[in-house]
Design a protein that fits this description.
Helix content: 25-40%
Largest sheet: 4 strands, antiparallel
CATH architecture of the largest domain: Alpha-Beta Complex
Structural class: alpha+beta
CATH class of the largest domain: Alpha Beta
Strand content: 5-15%
Strand order of the largest sheet: 12-4-1-13
Number of domains: 2
Number of strands: 13
Order of helices and strands: HHHHHHEEEEHHEEEHHEEEEEHE
Shape: globular
Number of helices: 11
Radius of gyration: 23 Å
CATH topology of the largest domain: paralog of FGE (formylglycine-generating enzyme)
Distance between the termini: 65 Å
């Protein structure tokens, strides 16, 4: 029987890794094309606000990433597709050079969309050759990072085009395929957790961004998480109870934001004159009546925090309700499979929870869950070397962490340690919330004996 030598076994693994990377590259780039397919050239050009970018810019920027960080340093005889694109499609990488003004991206009518597609095709061909022939592990690693970067922009493309279409008085539809079906509502229940000493952060296998590292220990006090996400129906109760007009529930900065911006409801809601009627909600499938059993979405941290305070004060079974910390969320989700209503499911809208035993539901997908944790470095954090190190670390101020992914997040992009982050007033992303609360301390022996263990769920009362 023939036995492969260690070197030939290594070569076999390398070729398998190359083949898998090439397959993944084609799949991710094709998915971007699929997401852009319903859009006209006019849709791809426009920019609805400074925080959003035109779809054409997203298509170009992710290609810029591969050309700038992979082809330029690793391709023999490298020549840029167009030298001017280096500045035009640089987002915020100061180590690479100058950037074009972000609020004015929608004014860049040239290159046209067709040229951007040609650029993508050329870069795809060059990356395929590089994957097949390079001896550089760094090149292959950066290609993998570039794919995760592109998946982030797939989600941004969807959220940005949703915002753009929402301000059109014709209420245009991105994809007319309304996914909701009638389901029995899942009662809200508290799932108690003992707490104790836990480890959070990336465990070292597979891809992770540098802000997920290093893995470290953290102590959790006993707490409980709501079994499901907060729903549109529960949020409607908050609105009807004057939640947006009562300063008791709001942080000072949040109350200033509500008053100065005239906020009365989540983004994309249209409140009816008849206060007993249901609002309508703009979705990627068009305007629809609010479904009370779907997770509330497009709320800011300010709104999520205010809802938690209101809920704690107005519902006896929610006494002490708050937003979870990111460590509580990660410890609860670490052993769960990354499954749920994610981009791959095709709904592109949060879906109602479905009963599945007494544990935690909707931990992945549907909406990004606001936590109470500020986005900061883990103990011992070191950013990635080089210009790509600007990707996460320099934003560790005035941002709040969200966890769990959304209906617009690709499943293969997600993991329990993933840290998303946005400013406290951001709400054009698919952001929502899950309630948490602290529990009375138990004996130290009980806490250490079963760190993170779930206890039997406790009924939270009618309607959550």
């Amino acid at each position: 029987m023939r036995h492969d030598s260690p070197q030939s076994a290594t070569d076999t693994r390398l070729e398998a890794d190359r083949a898998e990377l090439a397959r993944r590259y084609r799949a991710v780039r094709e998915q971007t094309r699929v997401l852009a397919a319903p859009l006209s050239p006019e849709d791809c050009q426009a920019q609805s606000m400074p925080d959003a970018s035109p779809a054409k810019w997203h298509l170009a920027h992710v290609t810029w990433f591969f050309e700038t960080f992979v082809l330029e340093p690793f391709e023999p005889g490298y020549k840029p597709f167009n030298p001017a694109f280096r500045v035009l499609y640089n987002s915020y990488y100061n180590g690479v050079g100058e950037q074009f003004s972000r609020p004015q991206r929608g004014l860049v009518t040239r290159p046209d969309l067709a040229e951007v597609w040609r650029w993508r095709e050329q870069v795809d061909q060059r990356i395929a050759r590089l994957i097949a022939h390079t001896d550089s592990a760094d090149a292959l690693r950066l290609i993998g990072m570039g794919l995760h970067h592109e998946q982030q922009h797939q989600e941004l493309l969807l959220t940005d085009i949703k915002h753009l279409l929402s301000i059109n008085p014709l209420s245009p539809v991105y994809r007319r395929a309304w996914p909701l079906v009638s389901v029995s509502p899942v009662p809200a229940r508290w799932v108690e957790r003992e707490g104790g000493l836990v480890e959070i952060g990336h465990a070292g296998e597979g891809f992770a961004f540098d802000n997920e590292t290093p893995r470290h220990r953290q102590w959790l006090e006993p707490h409980a998480l709501m079994n499901r996400l907060v729903t549109h129906g529960e949020w409607l109760d908050f609105v009807r109870d004057g939640g947006y007009t009562d300063p008791r529930w709001w942080l000072a900065a949040g109350w200033d934001w509500v008053r100065t911006q005239g906020i009365r409801a989540p983004l994309y809601w249209t409140l009816p004159q008849d206060t007993t009627a249901l609002p309508t909600v703009f979705t990627l499938h068009g305007d629809v009546p609010l479904d009370p059993h779907t997770p509330v979405v497009h709320v800011s941290y300010f709104e999520a925090d205010a809802f938690a305070r209101w809920s704690a004060a107005t519902h006896a079974d929610h006494a002490g309700a708050r937003l979870p910390t990111e460590a509580e969320w990660e410890a609860a989700s670490a052993a769960l499979p990354v499954q749920g209503n994610l981009q791959d499911a095709g709904a592109l809208h949060p879906m109602p929870a479905r009963a599945a035993g007494g544990g935690l539901l909707q931990m992945f997908g549907d909406v990004w869950e606001w936590t109470s944790s500020s986005y900061s470095a883990y103990p011992g954090y070191q950013p990635t070397e080089g210009a790509v190190g600007e990707y996460n670390g320099k934003f560790m101020v005035n941002q709040t962490v969200l966890r769990g992914g959304s209906c617009a997040t690709p499943a293969s992009h997600l993991r329990a340690s993933y840290r998303n982050f946005f400013p406290t007033d951001a709400r054009w992303q698919f952001s929502g919330l899950r309630l948490a609360k602290s529990l009375p301390p138990r004996s130290a022996a009980a806490r250490v004996a079963a760190p993170g263990q779930e206890r039997a769920p406790v009924q939270a009362g009618p309607g959550g």
